[in-house]
Automatic annotation (TrEMBL):
<dbReference type="InterPro" id="IPR004360">
    <property type="entry name" value="Glyas_Fos-R_dOase_dom"/>
</dbReference>
<dbReference type="Pfam" id="PF00903">
    <property type="entry name" value="Glyoxalase"/>
</dbReference>
<dbReference type="InterPro" id="IPR037523">
    <property type="entry name" value="VOC_core"/>
</dbReference>
<dbReference type="InterPro" id="IPR029068">
    <property type="entry name" value="Glyas_Bleomycin-R_OHBP_Dase"/>
</dbReference>
<protein>
    <submittedName>
        <fullName>Glyoxalase</fullName>
    </submittedName>
</protein>
<feature type="domain" description="VOC">
    <location>
        <begin position="1"/>
        <end position="118"/>
    </location>
</feature>
Length: 128
């Protein structure tokens, strides 16, 4: 069995500076590390228990099959903070039939990001 020590999602944006401004300034993700120089340098952000690396450049937007799932403690507060930071909200927070409270946003290349709150009484919070 593979023993995974760490993991990260890699994004190759069409406009690296615009994506760094989105993830670092608008979403306010803290920087784990930076590497390289120039406009295509790499920036790795903390994502709770994982990392998001924005590095390099792509001529095409990421596949619509790629989605980011970001769990927060309070999705209503996250909504207010993101709107104040100029982030377009595709769908405001609402409770889903499966019990999670979800809000949808996108990054500058159209990568969908679901911002999720797991309510205290949700089964994801408890193990039988």
């Amino acid at each position: 069995m593979v023993h995974v020590l760490s993991s990260r999602t890699l994004l190759r944006p069409t406009d690296p500076e615009r994506s760094r401004a989105f993830y670092g300034q608008r979403l306010g993700l803290p920087v784990y590390r930076e590497f390289g120089t120039g406009p295509e340098r790499g920036t790795v952000y903390f994502l709770g228990g994982g990392f998001l690396e924005v590095a390099g450049r792509s001529d095409a937007a990421p596949s619509p099959a790629l989605k980011l799932w970001l769990q927060v403690a309070d999705v209503a507060a996250a909504h207010d903070e993101l709107v104040a930071a100029g982030v377009e909200v595709l769908r405001p927070p609402r409770k889903e039939p499966w019990g999670l409270i979800e809000m949808w946003i996108t990054d500058p290349d159209g990568t969908e990001i679901v911002v999720v709150e797991v309510p205290a009484d949700h089964p994801l919070r408890h193990r039988p």
